[in-house]
């Protein structure tokens, strides 16, 4: 079941997309979805709960440009797939700067729409083999792919979740993340650090290099960590 949102101010275009989704579902057994529709960006952004799989986003919404809306969405949710709806390819190309998955040109044709949806379904099937983290900070609810997390540390009762581009601070326990992320190759290397083995570049004495950061390895966890790392690199885990 996919959660799909259409953000389009032109009622005719929004209904056109809605009918195409119905047609696609009729032609593809097993494809089911929930649909929500908005005609303005501000209500959508106010209500958004990081629960969408796919967003059709008009590039020109009266109360906010679609590009600006996409930037705000990406601050909250780096997982949702965005397909821009536009009349000009130049805007579509700019959309890749905010991680847009694709674009469709108005007036939308079903053949093109169906091809895009085939790609969406294949990509989401691949993503669903990984794990998504829902992170509640003091300011907001965030949703990120576990695959984007390089390591997690605990400091003064705060959990710091490191990605390539930012550090997300959350109150909580490292043990909860350790249990949740064990199936996707996260291993504790000390009392305060949980490492994504995908990003380990080297082990030097009592430290491990993780995506440009030196992280300590405690003597009590060294053997277990190195065993897990060897299994991961060897493909047996």
Explain what you see:
34% of the residues lie in helices and 34% in strands. It is built from 7 helices and 17 strands. It has helices at 11-27, 41-47, 66-76, 89-95, 110-127, 174-181, 222-233, and strands spanning 2-7, 33-38, 54-58, 60-61, 64-65, 81-86, 102-105, 132-136, 141-145, 149-155, 158-163, 167-171, 186-190, 193-196, 200-204, 207-210, 213-216. A 5-stranded parallel sheet has the order 2-1-3-6-7, sandwiched between helices. A hairpin with a 4-residue loop joins strand 8 and strand 9. The model has no long low-confidence stretch (mean pLDDT 87).
Strand order of the largest sheet: 2-1-3-6-7
| Total beta strands | 17
- Separation of the first and last Cα atoms: 30 Å
Task: Report the total helices.
Answer: 7
- Rg over CA atoms, rounded to whole Å, is 21 Å
Spans of 5+ residues with little confidence (pLDDT < 50)? none
Strand content: 25-35%
Write the H/E string, N to C. EHEHEEEHEHEHEEEEEHEEEEEH
What is the CATH topology classification name of the largest domain? Answer: Rossmann fold
Assign the CATH class of the largest domain: Alpha Beta
CATH architecture of the largest domain: 3-Layer(aba) Sandwich
What is the average of the pLDDT values?
87
Give a quick account of the main beta sheet: strands, pairing sense, barrel closure: 5 strands, parallel
- The total number of structural domains is 2
């Amino acid at each position: 079941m996919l959660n799909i949102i259409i953000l389009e101010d032109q009622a005719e275009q929004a209904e056109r997309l809605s009918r195409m989704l119905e047609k696609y579902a009729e032609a593809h057994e097993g494809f089911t979805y929930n649909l929500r529709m908005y005609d303005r960006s501000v209500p959508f952004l106010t209500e958004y709960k990081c629960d969408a799989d796919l967003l059709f986003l008009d590039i020109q919404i009266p109360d906010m440009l679609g590009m600006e809306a996409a930037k705000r969405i990406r601050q909250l949710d780096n997982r949702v797939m965005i397909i821009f709806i536009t009349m000009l390819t130049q805007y579509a190309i700019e959309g890749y700067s905010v991680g847009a998955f694709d674009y469709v040109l108005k007036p939308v044709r079903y053949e093109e729409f169906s091809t895009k949806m085939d790609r969406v379904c294949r990509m989401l099937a691949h993503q669903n083999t990984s794990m998504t983290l829902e992170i509640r900070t003091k300011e907001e609810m965030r949703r990120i792919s576990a695959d984007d997390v390089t390591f997690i540390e605990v400091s003064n009762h705060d959990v710091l979740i490191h990605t390539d581009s930012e550090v997300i601070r959350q109150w909580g326990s490292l043990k909860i993340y350790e249990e949740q992320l064990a199936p996707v190759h996260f291993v504790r290397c000390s009392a305060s650090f949980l490492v994504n083995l995908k990003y380990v570049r080297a082990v030097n004495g009592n430290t491990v290099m993780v995506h440009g950061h030196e992280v300590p390895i405690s003597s009590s966890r060294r053997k277990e960590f190195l065993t897990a790392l060897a299994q991961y690199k060897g493909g047996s885990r």
